[in-house]
Amino acid sequence: MILKMQNVECKMRNCGAQRPSAARSAGNIHSPFCILHSAFSLVEVVIAVGIFSFVIVAVMGTMSVALSSTRDSEMKLSAAHTSAVIIGTLKANPTNITDTNFTISSVTSLATLTGTKNSPTNVFVDRQGRYVGSDKTATNAAFRLAWKLTKDTTLTNLVFCNIELAWPPGAPTNSVSSHRVATSILLP
Length: 188
Prior knowledge:
Elements: H1 2-15, H2 20-25, H3 42-92, E1 116-118, E2 124-125, E3 131-133, E4 143-151, E5 158-167, E6 177-186
Antiparallel strand pairs: 1-4, 2-3, 2-4, 4-5, 5-6
């Protein structure tokens, strides 16, 4: 028995591996020197690649949804900031609105406003609330702006202001996202 094990050990040193059939013929079925070489079959490799591909496609699909959600959240935040800038400008100096970059340029003073004043059909603004043009392809147009100013008939020093910012600016009205703000401005 010792001779047979030395023979198997010797064969392993010379050729690097012992076949299971040689170990069995030598009588060493459970020999510690017997190394079994195994490999994956082609079917196993194809199944593994298929599963890996399926997982990668699922992860990529999830990433596109996450990026879309992030972009939409960014635009909502930007629209909220832009509407705050517009309302802040109106509240800061309601009796003298003369800034040419300001979006409600057809109204020079909220104090002289009578009844209701609506925005023109196409007013496009950038992310800072500045007027960029009346064409949807205007440079830096981030939002389409619609506004409505209504002076209260009972309280003469109160103006109601409704602002809507819609994006993307060039999209049809039925396929846009929007941010609406309603506030009141107390005149001095």
